[in-house]
């Protein structure tokens, strides 16, 4: 069946895109990722069009021997040209089409927010259109792309490359940044690095030394995160997100206020700033939760969905 073959090829292209991008020995992985992720989308969308409209839908009417492009598939499936998902893919298609001449490793710093969103969009639509769970093909934790720790340095780029190439890199970054700010996570996943000082050496991932004689000034910032971004879920929305994830894993939705409070008590979620932020400006403290809390609860439920509530109750009684 042609639909099945297209879906299998789409899964393989998607896997190749992820594996190529996350392979540390490949320097110029932007070209490969953009090529394979576009192929994956084209194959998946063509399979969807065939299922929805028949075989003729993927061919040009005036040329029945030629199939439509990925751009044509996008216009048919995502008819609203302002949809963040469509805009995301259109930008990656532009990158793919110019990669032969102008792509350098610095483009990774510009496009990684779009690449990560594109990966998550594909996983979502593969499930919606074809009931295929890509986390059974690639484990969930491997769907996160490796991020460069470098920042885009315009002066270094100008010194490193000819004017035409340097201008294209800088212009691409300047055009994309406002679009990233204007759109939601369907267009781009912002990549941000946070650094915290701690005296607990076992919790550190890197080490620094304070030197009063240093010529380089450093300012310590106590608080740099926006909790509206990092801890944006109230309990009701957190339960809804957990249940959506359980449904996608073909499990019964069981998250509610009672279950959530059980997890709060057993795992100390309210006491852990990674999971919970306490808003103390109100007469009664209010709590909002991070995506990490949602992931923790979802994964624990998936381990033993039938007995998780009973096990949580037993843990509380032991304490």
Write the layout of secondary structure elements.
Blueprint: H1 2-21, H2 29-53, E1 59-60, E2 63-67, H3 70-77, H4 84-102, H5 107-130, H6 154-160, H7 163-182, H8 227-230, H9 235-248, H10 257-267, E3 276-279, E4 286-289, H11 291-303, H12 308-318
Antiparallel strand pairs: 1-2, 3-4
Helix pairs in contact: 1-2, 2-3, 2-4, 2-5, 4-5, 5-7, 6-7, 9-11, 10-12
Describe this structure as you would to a colleague.
- Residues 5-177 form the DUF3644 domain.
- There is one protein chain.
- This protein is mainly alpha-helical.
- It has two domains: 2-182; 227-318, no CATH class.
- The chain has twelve helices and four strands, in the order ααββααααααααββαα.
- The strands form two sheets. It has a two-stranded antiparallel sheet with strand order 1-2. It has a two-stranded antiparallel sheet with strand order 3-4.
- β1 and β2 (63-67) form a beta hairpin.
- α4 (84-102) crosses α5, α6 runs antiparallel to α7 and α9 packs across α11.
- The longest helix has 25 residues, at 29-53.
- The protein is globular and about 70 Å long.
- The mean pLDDT is 84.
Q: Cα-atom Rg, whole angstroms?
A: 23 Å
Count of individual helical segments: 12
Backbone shape: globular
H/E topology pattern: HHEEHHHHHHHHEEHH
